[in-house]
Each structure stands twice: as structure tokens, then as C-alpha cells.
Amino acid sequence: MTNYISINKIAIVSILCMVLILGIQQASAQLTGMQTMYYQNQYLANPAMAGMEQGLNINLGYQQQWTSVPGGPKLQNFTADYNSGNNVGLGLNVSGDNAGLINRTRVMGTYAYHLPLSDKDDKLSFGLSLGINDTYIDYTKVNGDQGDVAVQNFNQRSIYVDGDFGISYTGRKFTAQAALPNMKTLFFSNDNNNNLEVDRATFFTALSYKIHADNGISNYTLEPKIAYRGVKGFDNILDAGAQMTMNDYNINFGGMYHTNKSFTITFGVNLAAMDIMAAYSNNTGPLSVYANNTFEFGIKLKMFNK
Questions:
Q1: I need a labelling partner for 53 at 20 to 30 A (CA). Which of 41, 47, 149, 182 fits?
Q2: Rounded to the nearest 5 degrees, what angle is found at the Cα of 170, between the Cα atoms of 167 and 174?
Q3: In whole angstroms, what is the distance from residue 10 CA to residue 13 CA?
Q4: What tens digit of pLDDT does each residue of 145-189 get?
Q5: Residue 67 is part of a domain; what is its CATH number?
Q6: Per the structure, how many domains does the chain have?
Q7: Which domain holds residue 79?
């Protein structure tokens, strides 16, 4: 029992230290990240969350930003994570990011280990993703000289190996997590491969707490959450909001405010074998004059989760 308590204390201290270390970094991910990363598919933001749930989970997501602006950013992602037993989680994360002329494709494989603590529902998890990253300019969208030397030089950059690292503490109610995505840029910040990629995630931290209630007529779960994340070339972003899940009706809805002056509302349906989520984000700052709509759709398939 004493050993369990000691491990639990170490877990909490480790998480809090990680959150503090990352939080004080001066960094400036995409301004509007995939909203599914906050609740429906947390593996997107943190490799330590791979295989956290039983069975095989397959997630598909699509987001269209700034619908009124030609070449507005489009994000697509596919993830699959599996709890293979023996406290091990495995995952595959494939993402595509198209913004104007620049396309970015990333394919990552993930290994996560979930260390049980004193309570069977409490875990200290570590996750590491390794894979490849390819960024290039689409010649067909160049409005001008397609033989421009700058464009050719940009596209001559080689595909490079990249990685993500994450850690999390998950309990029945409280969850704390931190992640370092795009680690190549952390250790090789002067690499020419990283020039012009100004909207890349630099760190992610989050805290959440689940509140369960049952009034005799219906029961629901309310989960407030705050996240603090870095974006290369921009100010750090604080996200604060909550999601309410009405368990008897298999639906959820939520809202989140982002300090880059945008607000997101979400609505989801939770079924035995499938979760569906839709999100709408509205810019409230100066950008709203030119582009104020972001739409997202996510679907999660739950397999072998007896």
C-alpha cells in the first residue's frame, strides 16, 4: 500500500512539473486545432493517450477553416489506437494540413505504456510517436512564375523523421497531461526543413475534471477543461471550456473559448459502436472581418471493446 501511495505522489508531482516547465516556455500548433483532440480523440494531442480505452478505436476528422477565404486551411486526420493488453497501447496517426500553397503530411506510429497506480482507474502514462513529415508547395496553386527558385528550393527539402512525446495522469475524475509535438524542431531549431512552417504546434498541456450527477430522472457528466498550447510564430493560446454528456440520451454538447479570440461550440452523439461530433468555431477578433467560420466533423468507431 505504501508503495502505491508513493507512486501516486510521484505521478502527480511529475505531471505538475511537466505542466509548469512547458507552460513557462515562450512559444508563439495551428491557431484552430482539431476540436476532437479535447474530448473525443485525445490521442491527437498526446501520444500517451493511445490505447487508453479498451479495444480498437478508429477516428476520422475533417476541418475547414475560414470558409470565405480562398485557400483557407483544411485539416484532415486518421487515427487508430489499440489497447493490446499488458498496459501497452499502440497507435497510428496520419494527418494532412493544407493552407494556401503549402501542404503538410505526417505519418506517425505510437507506443504508449499505462502504469496502474493505487486505484485500478488511476494511471500514469507515457507515449512516444515516431514517423515522417513531408511539407511541400503545390505547383498547381502558384499564381505566378511556377519556376520561381524559392518554390523549387522549398520543394527540394527532404522528407524528415519527426517525433512526439507525451505524459498523462488519468483518474476516475481528474486528468492532467502534457505533450511535446514536433520534437525535431525542438532539438534542431535551425534546420532549413523547418523554415516557413510558422503555424506548427510547439507544446500542449491540459487539465480536466469530471463531475457526475444523477437527479433520479437522468444522469449526466460535466467535464470542465483548460488547455495551454504553443504555436510557432504566434502567441501561446489558452483554451477554457466544458463538455456535458447526457448519458441517458447518448448526446453531448459543449463550448470552449480560445484566447486567439475565437469560440467553439460542439454537439455529439454517443452510440455503442460509434461517436459522432460536429463543431463550429467563430472568430471574434479582427480576423472576423475577413474569415469567421470554421467547421469540423469527427467520427469515432469503437471495435472489440467488450
A1: 182
A2: 120
A3: 5
A4: 666 666 666 667 778 899 999 999 999 999 999 999 988 877 665
A5: 2.40.160.40
A6: 1
A7: 2-303
The one-letter amino acid code at 61 reads G
The mean per-residue pLDDT over the stretch 130-144 comes to 76
- State whether the Cα torsion 278-57-45-65 is positive or negative: negative
Residue pair 164/108 in contact (Cβ under 8 Å)? The answer is: yes
Q: All 3 cell numbers of residue 274?
A: 460509434
Question: For residues 17 and 101, what is the distance between their CA atoms, to the nearest angstrom?
Answer: 39
Q: Which helix (H) or strand (E) element contains residue 88?
A: strand 88-99
Per-residue pLDDT for 209 more than 50? yes
Mean residue pLDDT across the chain:
82
Cell matching residue 68: 470565405
User: Burial, 164: exposed, middle or buried (Cβ in 10 Å; 0-12, 13-18, 19+)?
Assistant: buried
> Which tops the pLDDT comparison, 143 or 207?
207
